[in-house]
Amino acid sequence: MAIAEIANSRILIVGGSSGMGLALARRTLAIGAEVIIVGRNEDKLKRTGAELQSAALSTVAADITQEGQVADLFERVGRLDHIVSTAADIEGAYELLPSLDLRAAQKVVESKFYGPLLLAKYGVPVLSPAGSITFTSGIAAYRPAARGSVVAAVNAGLEGLVRALAVEVAPIRVNAVSPGWVDTPIWTFVAGDKKDETLSAMAKRLPVGRVGQPEDIADAISFLMGNAFTTGTILHVEGGHRLV
């Protein structure tokens, strides 16, 4: 499927009201797609709608960790061409084991594994056979660090799910993008008031000399949606992080 065909498609983006998801929504709206942004916070969704100001945009409040809400979501939105999820609830999860709260760990699993699983379960019946599902993994699965054990494990599990779903729901394509360090609001939960200092130090390490921007990941997701010969694939967009 070429970019021209994406322009005429209906795309559902979970987590599209900030960061990478918002960048993807802006990009796909600009080329003529119809976009449905899904999030839990209605006020945030309203602000996103006001910011993007597009007649081709709609928003739906839903929690993808709740099966009933996911089932209702797909009954409401109808036919789709692509489903994308960039959602992740990692608040409180970046802790050393003695300080790790189990509920914070469970929220990561719910948002980054069970949520995508439910999106596939209820989304596949409304997807075009030529359509796709794209999830978001991350560099932690390959370069884990202290305090990141939960996120590393969930990212790795999600990538296994991608490969299995690509076989089970074919010809619908299922892929994941694996970002490196990207300057998004999620870093507030990871580094707190040391966000800028932490990202700057990583930029000096990376072969590309900078950390990622949301637009870098939106570009990668667009490729995965548009390339009809790519499925079961993890696309690494991390500035060479796995090499250093």
Structure description:
Pfam families: adh_short_C2. GO terms for molecular function: oxidoreductase activity. This is NAD(P)-dependent dehydrogenase, short-chain alcohol dehydrogenase family. Belongs to the short-chain dehydrogenases/reductases (SDR) family. Keywords: Oxidoreductase. The chain has helices at residues 3-6, 19-30, 42-52, 67-77, 102-123, 149-168, 187-191, 195-205, 214-226; strands at 10-14, 34-39, 57-61, 80-85, 127-136, 173-179, 234-237. The model has no long low-confidence stretch (mean pLDDT 95). Helix 5 runs parallel beside helix 6 (149-168). Helix content is 45%, strand content 18%. It has a single domain, classed as NAD(P)-binding Rossmann-like Domain (Rossmann fold, 3-Layer(aba) Sandwich). Helix 5 links the parallel strand 4 and strand 5 (127-136). By secondary structure, it is an alpha/beta fold. A seven-stranded parallel β-sheet has the order 3-2-1-4-5-6-7, with helices on both faces. The longest helix has 22 residues, at 102-123. It contains nine helices and seven strands.
